[in-house]
Amino acid sequence: MTLFSDTRYLFVRALKKLVRNPILIFFSLFQPIIFLVLFTQLFRRFNELPGFPPGISYLQYAAAGILLQNAFSSALQAGTSIVDDINYGFLQKMLVTQVARPAILLGRLSSDAFRVTVQSVIILVLAYLLGFRVNTGLPGILLMLFIIAFFGLAWSGISLALGMRTRSAETVFGIGGFLTFPLLFMSTALVPVSFMPSWMQDVSKFNPISYAVNAVRDLSLAGFYSTNAVLESIGVIALIAVITMSATLYMFRKVVS
Amino acid sequence: MTEVINVKDLTLTYADGTKAVQGISFSVNEGEFFGFLGPNGAGKSTTIKILTTLLHKTSGTASVVGLDIERQAPLIRKLIGVQSQDTSVDPELTGRENMLLEGHLQQMHGKELEERVDSLLNVVGLKEAADKRAGRYSGGMKKRLDLASVLVHKPKIMFLDEPTTGLDPQTRATVWDYLEQLNKSEGITIFLTTQYLEEADRLCQRLCIVDQGKIVAQGTPAELKSEIGADAITITMKDGQGKSDDSLKAKGRQLLQSLPNIMNVVDSGNGLTIYAKDGGYFVPDLVRAFDKSDIKLVSINLSTPSLDDVFLKHTGKRIRVEELQKQTSSMFSRGRGSR
Ligand SMILES: Nc1ncnc2c1ncn2[C@@H]1O[C@H](COP(=O)(O)OP(=O)(O)OP(=O)(O)O)[C@@H](O)[C@H]1O
Ligand SMILES: [Mg+2]
User: Tag placement on chain B: N or C end, fewer CB within 10 Å?
Assistant: First the structure.
């Protein structure tokens, strides 16, 4: 079976490309870092408002949201690299080799998940320096990273499918940028649900970002078992993943056939 | 001789209804240097994509090394090397990394692969630039890297879609020499499309000429040229005011009608090409006829038929240098056609 080794080669290729284009990582990290450093300072007295969880700083609250914002916006860019491969003929070049077809997709997805994880670690370290703490320690952090990466993976499916459908990096970038902020603001990423007008509370209830954020936040503020947030989020993300990966597989089959 | 490519009544219609290939049949023998020539849009690249398992045929049959292109595609991929018309290298990987990746995906590993890569980089003259990112290569260097990477796994058959377009004359000559050597000494079958008809004439043992998705002629270069059965006399003209345009060409054609032995007259861009038996005897008649008219002859060029003339005869077109330049400046691929 060459699937595993082929995936590994393509994973390494993707990472090399990323490392040699540090500007891409910089762009994705820029926003979360601004949020972490400026936004949480600007709104630092949020925690004085009634309805805010007592006894914690705004940074401690918002870090989970910032982590998932980063995962979300990075994931929505995932499709641009496959667009490049299609448009520069590199995909075609791979397809005339014996490469195991699924490896092309798996190499892509695994490198995207890896990228989100690395970016999350950078944000976590920076947040730690600013005073953010995780109650559940290292196991909690690992579980957080898993949820974040899984979340990113689930959404990168949308981007990949879109990239293969439109073959336009601009479209992928555009739709990514278009979705990020509305979904972020209409979730519990940055404020407690009770702060929102009631219609937004309804939206937030159906917003997958809220579920992932709640799980990550619970891991940092409370403990593993304090709520069902962790299991709930994994369920919701799995559901999204099934949908987006089906779309991706469908498009990939069409492109590769 | 064993047939390594066999194509029967092959057709391909793209999703938008373009009938790119309309029922072609031909075969290529083992060890042959085979040319597949035709004007822009004739369906050459499409045919290559079908034979290299990238596109699904609409109808007909085709086999490569005795393997069916639909049912045995994975086995075919092991044995072929494909250089597509649109150069594709990964710009963020170095030349060497590009080749190693290609080798890995072709199931080659370790020392064997490294040595193979080194020697190929040497052959295509990229030894010094091997560890530089391919994105910083010149167009010709990319093309050579692409060619080298296609050779990594020692394919039995190479499909080369315009391998020398965009190269400078010197490099072009080197690449042709190398391909000739591959073919002669290693017995690799080469299926080639090119716009360089002189090279095709020299290297190809057999040729197909395609136009609008159909094969319009096939045979050895000598056979095809002798079919013309006449010499080619290309003239350019001008009138009293020094102008030369289409109406002048029409007048010229009229004038030529009075002359014997002419087999055909075709437009050759900036003049006319006349096919006539015994060209040497024909030229004096031609000059006399024009002397009596108000059209001046600017140049006369007499030649035995070349592949150019064969091409012109069957397709009504000449391959022009402008076309070549246009091609090299648009190296982006259109991507894969959908089914
Ligand atoms: N993906 C596609 N979808 C629709 N039509 C296509 C597609 N690719 C090529 N064609 C059309 O099919 C015809 C044959 O194209 P092809 O690329 O095979 O020509 P070619 O002989 O390689 O030409 P050139 O010398 O310019 O490379 C052209 O009319 C072209 O416009
Ligand atoms: Mg072509």
Answer: N
